């Protein structure tokens, strides 16, 4: 019985220390990755790492996965939500934006080489599919996905105009490239 208690105490201490380690690393906002994944990411997976009080790290804009591979969906999400981040030093926002845009330009070249393959289903399209549409960049693509998640499927292609930032001119530019 004493042996079981020692093992139990060890497990509680070990997992408690591990949890403190994870929470002390700081975190970045992420589209679909679980918090544990974000905490386990190396600093190189983030666009900028700031140091806060008592050396606490504030890691901004994760865009590489645990294997340090670029995650295109997450990159677009990070760019599309960059204006909502809070920075210790506002200059770091520009550094992060430049870093993310360099990656984005490379993936857009790759995406544009393939071209648009048929129409884009606005009810199911991911961020990488949405940004290929004319006049749709990361910010609007994120707004489309968030709108869809909050309000459900678009019943008609015209319903996409309910998304903030999509007016008649943007709709007219994309209308022949989308379906619902």
Description:
By secondary structure, the chain is mainly alpha-helical. The chain has two domains: about 25-105, no CATH class; about 115-180, DNA polymerase, domain 1, CATH 1.10.150.320. It contains seven helices and four strands; from the N terminus they run H-H-E-E-H-H-E-H-H-H-E. It has helices at about 1-25, 35-40, 70-80, 90-115, 125-130, 140-150, 170-175; strands spanning about 45-50, 55-60, 120, 180. The strands form two sheets. It has a two-stranded antiparallel sheet. The protein has a two-stranded parallel sheet with strand order 3-4. A hairpin with a 5-residue loop joins strand 1 (about 45-50) and strand 2 (about 55-60). The longest helix is centred in the middle third of the chain and has 24 residues, at about 90-115. It starts with a helix and ends with a strand.
Q: Could you give a short description of this structure?
A:
The protein is mainly alpha-helical and 180 residues long. The protein is built from seven helices and four strands, in the order ααββααβαααβ.
Domain count: 2
- Order of adjacent strands in the largest pleated sheet: 1-2
> What is the makeup of the main sheet?
2 strands, antiparallel
The SS-based structural class is mainly alpha
For the termini, the CA-CA separation is 63 Å
Shape: globular
DSSP summary, beta strand count? 4
Radius of gyration: 21 Å
Secondary-structure element pattern, one letter each: HHEEHHEHHHE
Mean pLDDT, all residues: 85
Q: Pick out the low-confidence regions.
A: 9-30
Percent of residues in helical segments?
40-55%
Portion of residues in beta strands equals 5-15%
Give the helix tally: 7
């Amino acid at each position: 019985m004493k042996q079981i208690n020692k093992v139990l105490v060890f497990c509680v201490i070990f997992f408690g220390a591990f949890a403190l380690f994870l929470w002390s690393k700081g975190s970045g906002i992420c589209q679909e990755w679980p918090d544990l994944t974000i905490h386990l990411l190396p600093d190189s997976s983030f666009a900028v790492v700031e140091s806060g009080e008592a050396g606490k790290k504030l890691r901004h804009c994760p865009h590489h996965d645990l294997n340090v591979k670029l995650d295109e969906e997450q990159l677009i999400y990070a760019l599309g939500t960059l204006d909502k981040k809070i920075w210790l030093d506002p200059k770091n926002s520009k550094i992060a934006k430049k870093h993310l845009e360099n990656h984005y330009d490379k993936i857009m070249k790759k995406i544009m080489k393939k071209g648009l393959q048929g129409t884009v289903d606005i009810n199911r399209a991911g961020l990488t599919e949405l940004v290929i549409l004319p006049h749709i960049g990361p910010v609007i693509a994120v707004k489309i996905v968030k709108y869809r998640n909050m309000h459900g499927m678009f019943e008609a292609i015209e319903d996409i105009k309910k998304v903030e930032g999509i007016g008649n001119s943007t709709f007219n530019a994309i209308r022949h490239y989308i379906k619902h």
